[in-house]
Design brief:
The protein has about 150 residues and is α+β, with helices and mostly antiparallel strands. The chain has three helices and five strands.
């Protein structure tokens, strides 16, 4: 699509080629002449920026602080942000909660050698026993008695 610039109460074909520091755009008209236009006097076309400094010159680049401030001041952005937060809240509420481990481990009383080994098999693993002192098996280096 071709760019058009507003000049003398009419739109004429032009080609933007540079963003100026005051926010205006330098354009070349179809007849070869050049001029500077305000952003509202330019429509259509394509202007490529070589780097961020050109975007800053054209006042098209905003910092994160500026974006946040604009979002806080803009009622539509506020509403959008509230909707996103509400959707996230509903999603989190709909997720099944992870049940906390409510099991209680108690040391076996009496002679339990017939039903289970006496030394904890996890105590010797790389990770060790996750139950620690609550483990019902022994945490010793001596082998289990049979």
């Amino acid at each position: 699509r071709k760019a058009e610039g507003f000049w003398d109460d009419q739109w004429y074909g032009c080609r933007p080629y540079e963003a100026l520091t005051d926010g205006r755009m330098a354009v070349r008209w179809e007849d070869g002449t050049q001029s500077d236009l305000k952003p509202n006097e330019l429509r259509g076309g394509l202007l490529l920026f070589r780097d961020l400094s050109q975007l800053e010159k054209a006042k098209l680049l905003r910092s994160a602080e500026e974006l946040k401030k604009r979002q806080e001041l803009n009622p539509k952005q506020k509403l959008r942000l509230e909707r996103i937060r509400e959707a996230l809240k509903r999603k989190r509420q709909a997720m099944p909660r992870q049940r906390k481990d409510t099991r209680h481990y108690v040391r076996a009383e009496g002679d339990a050698s017939a039903s289970a080994p006496q030394v904890c098999r996890h105590f010797f693993s790389e990770r060790g026993c996750s139950r620690g002192d609550k483990c019902r098996f022994e945490h010793t280096t001596s082998p289990a008695k049979k």
